[in-house]
From TrEMBL:
Residues 132-144 have a biased composition (Basic and acidic residues). Residues 132-165 are annotated as: Disordered. InterPro entries: Transposase_InsH_N (IPR008490). Pfam families: DUF772. Residues 22-116 form the Transposase InsH N-terminal domain. This is IS5 family transposase.
Length: 165
């Protein structure tokens, strides 16, 4: 049996967002963003640009993030930019603080991102990404051990027995 919807065409203005306008921490792009040490390579990336000439460069996070998105989704440069434009999770991954339906850069910028982030830099970034969770887990263990040491030891004494005389 089929029941026809009385609502007719769905209007995007009335489209319900189940996450109440907030991003879910369980999304794969949110989780991946937490794993990448964005700040570790920002200075090295910034050294490639002159201090006062030309238009401001896109951030390291945007450049690397766009290349990661392209590889993970297996898309062309044009399709990558379109995916970013349409998806708030991808925009968050790139370090954009709020959703915009405008593309953050032209597809031709992907060529520049690839030139600026060569294979040697990408290799070092991959090493840091792999190391980052391991170092975090080691720090958590050290913190737990430190907290255990700070606790008062349990009473180790014996029970004194009194004798009736």
């Amino acid at each position: 049996m089929y029941r026809r919807s009385a609502k007719g065409q769905l209007s995007f203005e009335n489209f319900y967002l189940p996450f109440s306008g907030k991003l879910s921490g369980e999304n794969r792009w949110v989780k991946l963003a937490e794993l990448i040490p964005w700040e570790s390579f920002e200075s090295e990336y910034a050294e490639q640009f002159s201090s006062g000439e030309g238009a401001p460069a896109k951030s390291f996070r945007m450049a690397l993030g766009a290349l990661i998105i392209k590889e993970k989704l297996g898309t062309s440069d044009e399709e990558t930019v379109e995916q970013i434009r349409e998806n708030p999770y991808l925009q968050y991954f790139l370090g954009i603080s709020e959703y915009s339906d405008k593309a953050p850069f032209e597809a031709s910028m992907m060529v520049h991102f690839r030139k600026r982030l060569n294979l040697e830099i990408i290799g070092r970034i991959n090493e840091q990404i792999v190391k980052h969770p391991i170092e975090s887990k080691q720090k958590e263990k050290e913190d737990e051990q430190s907290q255990e040491e700070d606790k008062e030891p349990p009473n180790q004494g014996g029970v004194a027995q009194m004798r009736d005389e």
